């Protein structure tokens, strides 16, 4: 190596002791190397002492410091440790003043470890120090040592120059499967539909066909084709279409100007039947990025927007791989790499067939929701909201007109109804029965004398509880459930008492933080505040009115003590979740038998309110409910929501289903027919 004899490119802002205090004693190279390392580890790059570049370029130390700063910011380096692992022997006789000065270079070997954004990067490198010689009329002396420097000292791949680049390898999003392994959301093949303007035979006609096939207004397509870069012979992308949409693709293939390219995207094989449950993905928005405090997303990334895609985003998305490289004129040298971690596949307890069967019971004009569970395990088999929407509209892209039509639809297809809570009406009465029996307020054989269609007591003021049918004598629990007697359950709620009713209802998941579910369904409630404030509200609570609100899913789960020796089960949605019990021994075997006998006679008894559920395929039991929506306890009813909770003789399923606005559709008879038909179809397959 060429010695430095005065032509040393230096910045002597701080020389770290490069001048000897004793004029006739030569500096030791290790002193300056240790100073250089100390400044390096402290990120004091402008304080590294005398530096010269091997190629003798005239870059001052300020530029070198800026290069360190730039590279370390690109790498995400915030810590550096340097160890000298080899030091050459330095031989000199300090007592011999007439001996020629030591002009040798000294090369040390360093072990360097520095952090990066994806892990520690370690390497070994040689570093050479060369003497800085001062010449006077009397003598020459070594005043210190300078580092022969190049960019390879920062990291070896930079030895010849170049730029740090970050290459991302996208993680594969996890798929979602039902209990039988059938796909509900997968990364599937799609077709990118595009137009080559040079292939138009009849532009206006072809654009009209494309518009209809893709449900995109002609004006919107024309706006894409009007971009400045568009020219004949280019592929101008318009929309992605799933390969499952064979009819649409076949129509498009007949149009001369249309081209297609294979691509991949999120595919939802069950379409609208699962859309509220599974949800859909979409491109990251500015709002998403603002919420992303960890910096996980970048523009154009995909993120879950609704349903399970959003609720399980963290588990589904995976972690992108990152490769840090040095790019020198297109030649890339790797520095460090973090392999991508693909997203987790979700295996649900949902049964695709059960979901589709229940969904198909709803018809145009209906608004409602339903849940189906396995009453012996707590597994969720179906979560249905109707009306629904095609999730591919969001993944493939839709016109503003199409989106506005969804928003303006009076049946609100974008509303996830099974995620919300509603007044359960008389389908809540078995819950009141469980509370009363658990608290020993009454027994199955205890009776109440009830006269007429209305009931009032002084604390009610002018308010009356009404029932829809008269009893033949004293009313016991069986008769009250079969005929759905509001007065019986109102009076029993009053006997239980507000405080005890609320406390005991926790056993069934109300106001109980231990009752949890993997899907974000709104919590059910007995009352809006912490207490039931008056007797009118307590009486109404007894038959599922007042301020009682439940999801169809929780309502179905609340019947599980009837099938598990009095134990209330926790709900399950993932196959990885084990069977868990929320509360034990809510009911005795005698109490269970009494309630189940009554629910059987709701369908099969002479005065049962669900006789429409009788059929030759499957024997059903259950409870009807009609919830009147009132603005106040004394107002006339405005809207009625109809409920039916049913289960089969073999206790394979419990299905809770609600339809809004049944006052003109036959009341609770309407949802009862739907649940019955669902059971018939399930047991006929």
How does this structure look, described?
The protein has 20 helices and 24 strands. The chain is of the alpha+beta class and 685 residues long. The strands form 7 sheets. The protein has a 5-stranded mixed beta sheet with strand order 1-5-4-3-2, with helices on one face. Strands 7, 8, 9, 10 and 15 form a 5-stranded mixed beta sheet that branches. Strands 17-16-24-23-22 form a 5-stranded antiparallel beta sheet. β3 (106-116) and β4 form a beta hairpin. The radius of gyration is 39 Å and the shape is elongated. The N and C termini lie far apart (87 Å). 40% of the residues are buried.
Helix content: 25-40%
Mean of all residue-level pLDDT scores: 90
Tally of strands: 24
Looking at how many chains there are and whether they match, the oligomeric state comes to single chain
**Helix/strand/pairing category:** alpha+beta
Distance between the termini: 87 Å
- The proportion of strand residues reads 15-25%
Low-confidence stretches: 1-23
What is this structure, in a nutshell?
This protein has 685 residues and is α+β, with helices and mostly antiparallel strands. Helix content is 26%, strand content 23%.
Helix and strand topology:
Blueprint lengths: L28 H13 L9 E3 L7 H15 L4 E7 L19 E11 L2 E17 L4 E10 L13 E7 L6 E2 L5 E13 L7 H12 L3 H8 L10 E7 L3 H8 L4 E10 L7 H4 L2 E3 L2 H6 L10 E3 L2 H5 L1 H5 L3 E8 L2 E8 L7 E2 L4 H8 L8 E6 L6 E7 L5 H5 L3 H9 L20 H10 L15 E2 L9 E2 L10 H7 L2 H11 L1 H8 L29 H8 L9 H6 L10 E2 L11 E3 L5 H16 L15 E10 L9 E10 L5 E6 L9 H16 L1
Parallel strand pairs: 1-5, 7-15
Antiparallel strand pairs: 2-3, 3-4, 4-5, 6-13, 7-8, 8-9, 8-10, 11-12, 13-14, 16-17, 16-24, 18-19, 20-21, 22-23, 23-24
Helix pairs in contact: 3-5, 10-20, 13-15, 14-19, 15-17
């Amino acid at each position: 190596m060429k010695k430095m004899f005065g032509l040393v490119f230096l910045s002597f802002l701080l020389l770290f002791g490069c001048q000897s205090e004793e004029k006739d004693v030569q500096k030791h190279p290790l002193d300056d190397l240790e100073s250089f390392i100390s400044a390096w580890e402290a990120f004091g790059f402008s304080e590294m002492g005398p530096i010269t570049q091997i190629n003798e370029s005239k870059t001052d130390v300020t530029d070198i410091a800026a290069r360190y700063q730039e590279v370390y910011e690109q790498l995400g380096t915030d810590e550096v440790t340097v160890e000298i692992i080899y030091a050459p022997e330095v031989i000199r006789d300090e007592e011999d003043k007439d001996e020629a000065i030591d002009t040798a270079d000294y090369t040390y070997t360093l072990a360097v470890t520095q952090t990066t954004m994806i892990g520690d990067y370690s390497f070994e490198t040689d570093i050479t120090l060369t003497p800085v010689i001062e010449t006077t009329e009397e003598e020459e002396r070594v005043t210190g040592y300078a580092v022969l420097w190049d960019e390879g000292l920062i990291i070896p791949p930079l030895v010849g120059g170049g730029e740090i680049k970050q290459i991302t390898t996208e993680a594969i999003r996890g798929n979602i499967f039902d209990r039988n392994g059938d796909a509900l959301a997968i990364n599937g093949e799609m077709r990118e539909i595009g137009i080559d303007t040079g292939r138009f035979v009849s532009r206006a006609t072809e654009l009209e066909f494309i518009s209809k096939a893709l449900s995109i207004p002609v004006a919107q397509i024309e706006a894409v084709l009007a971009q400045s870069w568009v020219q004949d012979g280019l592929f101008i992308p318009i929309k992605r279409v799933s390969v499952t949409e064979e009819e649409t693709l076949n129509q498009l293939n007949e149009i001369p100007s249309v081209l297609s390219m294979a691509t991949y995207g999120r595919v939802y094989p069950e379409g609208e039947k699962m859309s509220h449950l599974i949800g859909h993905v979409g491109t990251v928005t500015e709002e998403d990025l603002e919420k992303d405090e960890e910096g996980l997303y970048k523009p154009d990334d995909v993120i879950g927007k609704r349903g399970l895609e959003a609720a399980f985003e963290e588990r589904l998305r995976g972690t992108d791989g990152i490769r840090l490289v040095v790019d020198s004129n297109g030649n890339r040298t790797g520095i460090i790499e973090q392999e991508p971690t693909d997203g987790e596949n979700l295996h649900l307890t949902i049964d695709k067939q059960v979901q589709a069967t229940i969904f198909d019971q709803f018809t145009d004009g209906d608004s409602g929701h339903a849940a189906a569970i396995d009453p012996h395990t707590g597994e969720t088999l179906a979560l249905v909201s109707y009306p629904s929407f095609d999730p591919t509209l969001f993944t493939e892209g839709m016109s503003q007109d199409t989106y506005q039509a969804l928003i303006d639809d009076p049946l609100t297809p974008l509303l996830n109804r099974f995620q919300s809570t509603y007044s359960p009406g008389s389908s809540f009465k078995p819950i009141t029965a469980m509370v009363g029996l658990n608290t020993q307020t009454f027994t199955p054989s205890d009776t109440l004398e009830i006269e007429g269609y209305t009931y009032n007591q002084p604390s009610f003021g002018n308010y009356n509880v009404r029932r829809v049918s008269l009893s033949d004598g004293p009313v016991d629990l069986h008769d009250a459930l079969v005929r759905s007697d509001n007065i019986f359950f109102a009076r029993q709620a009053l006997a239980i008492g507000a405080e005890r009713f609320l406390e005991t209802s926790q056993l069934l998941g109300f106001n109980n933080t231990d009752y949890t579910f993997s899907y974000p369904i709104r919590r059910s409630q007995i009352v809006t505040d912490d207490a039931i404030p008056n007797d009118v509200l307590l009486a109404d609570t007894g038959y599922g009115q007042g301020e009682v609100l439940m999801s169809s899913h929780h309502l179905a789960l609340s019947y599980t003590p009837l099938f598990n020796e009095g134990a209330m089960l926790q709900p399950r949605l993932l196959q990885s979740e084990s069977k868990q019990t929320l509360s034990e021994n809510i009911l005795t075997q005698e109490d269970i038998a009494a309630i189940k006998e009554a629910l059987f006679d709701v369908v099969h008894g002479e005065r049962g309110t669900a006789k429409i559920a009788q059929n030759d395929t499957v024997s059903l039991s259950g409870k009807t409910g009609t919830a009147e929506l009132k603005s106040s306890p004394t107002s006339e009813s405005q809207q009625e929501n109809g409920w039916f909770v049913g289960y089969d003789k073999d206790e394979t399923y419990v299905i809770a289903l609600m339809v809004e606005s049944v006052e003109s559709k036959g009341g609770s008879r309407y949802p009862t027919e739907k649940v019955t038909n669902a059971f018939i179809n399930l047991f006929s397959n």
